[in-house]
Amino acid sequence: MTACDKQGTIHVKMFISLKQEDETMAFDGNFVHALLGELDSLRSGKINKIQQMDDTSMIFKVRAQGANHNLLISAHPMYARFHLTKHKYEFPFDPPMFLRVARKHLEGGIIETIRQVGNDRRVEMHIQSRNELGDPIRRILILEIMGRHSNIIITDADYIIQDGIKHLTPNNNSRTIMPGFPYSAPPTEPKLNPRTADIESVTAHIDFNRGKIGRQILHNVEGFSPLFVKEVEYLAGYFTTETIVPAIKEAMHQAEEIKPVLYTDGDSEIFYFTPLSHLGAPDATYDSLSGLMDDYYHDRYRKSLIRQKAQDYVHLIEREYDRTERKIEKLKADLAEAEKMDEYQKYGELLTAYMHQVKPYDESIEVIDYYTDEPLIIPLDKNRTASENAQRYYKMYNKLKTRESSAATQLERSYEDIRYLSSLLHQMESISTQEEVEEIREELGEQGIIKNNRRQPKKKKHKIQLHPYRTTNGLDVLVGKNNKQNDYLTSKKAQNNHLWFHTKDIPGSHVVILHTEGEIEEQDILDAAMIAAYHSKARDSESVPVDFTKVRHVHKVSGAKPGFVTYTDQQTVNVTPDRGKVMKMAQPEA
Prior knowledge:
The protein is of the alpha+beta class. 34% of the residues lie in helices and 22% in strands. It contains twelve helices and 24 strands. Strands 1, 6, 7, 8, 9, 10 and 11 form a seven-stranded mixed beta sheet that branches. Strands 17-18-20-19-21-24 form a six-stranded antiparallel beta sheet, sandwiched between helices. Strands 2-3-4-5 form a four-stranded antiparallel beta sheet. The relative contact order is 0.07.
């Protein structure tokens, strides 16, 4: 930790440390070094306003060099970072306590310098400000990004903590983050700074007999990530006492070229501030590091926030699913018991026929079953007369007959409920907008799974948003991602002569090619089928069967659950979902 001077400047210090085990980690000390050159534009800027997006992330609105800048600082457990952002975020109406402290100590401050400590993921931002009396003051804002242990802390010039966005109590932690306590940096092992002559001695810290040389370099060199060590190893060819230092120097020299890049490999993406030889040509380049990080993290952050909001509904659906499964087991037991009703009816008839043979207090009677001409033993209640025993069996028969009819009907409905709830759970996995969360909430209310609050004012209904794609031949395709969208697409948006797709007997989206049969070629059918398979529960399967037919042959059954339809005149194709191909067909949403 670098000591601050004692003259009345606010110091903002950021400690950034991502998990060493993350092989795709890109926000390392080298990245911070490059990013600070870009953020130098904030020097002499004034912090006009501070806002807090959630429990872990903040926006500093800075006026610098005649322009307004939004500096995002986040201690999110998965998306911890700092960079300039152009995206808009929602902020809670009532500012949290930490935000009030930040505004008190930091708003109105002037940024003097922004500097990195060594080559670590620690950054100090020195800010000059004034207190309520107009006297100059100095404060330190400390941002620690360490996965789920990330934190944002405000201290005074002597590193006495004013507040932390997360409190660490003195009893259960190696250090304390509470108002009034002195701040101490997270405990770390001493490491070599690769930007100084210290790096010449790195081989003295490596035990070649232990192996895992790359991991040993990570533990001994400051600010390196597994990603950067792979680049060093690529340049070295093979780690030896002679190749390690030259390879590190060569990698550091190449890293002087600031060219933000993004590499894509299937579902995974890796970003870095400079091209990496061992990854080959990048899939995308950016004009700025902040622009790269803004794009990379914003969509992930937004989706995680939406899914967090939707999680309560997921729990409700799962609870309803479990309740319905238990109901099915009980109904099955009722039907199994109902199989005895014919036996009870026979007992009643035979007792009536042989009533004169029954003696008082008999516990059973053996008679000839005139249906089979075989002897049959009928159990009796010794405390009942023969007539009462016969009536008891008739009552048991009638009761089970009624139960059988009711259980069969309820069982059919319960199986339908299970299919419906299963489709809802699948749809919850693909929620990506707040509007889709609201659509699910509305549907759960309509189905009685949740109770609508009558006192709460009704929200204005929003336009249902469908999801556009385009086949390789250029034909337009629309997809519904939940039941409301599916019903709207099939029943209102699509025309009778359009082609409709759905995975065969598998929960999934309704997909429609918005063209007539004469315009549709075989490749369009395969493309639309792949889109339907990708937006289904069989996304990760191979050779997924997909039915397709004209919209005129698709019918909504009266009283059926949302999204449920029947269809005829269908044909079936088998396709294997390919995320890359589907993403290429995806179109911007209006």
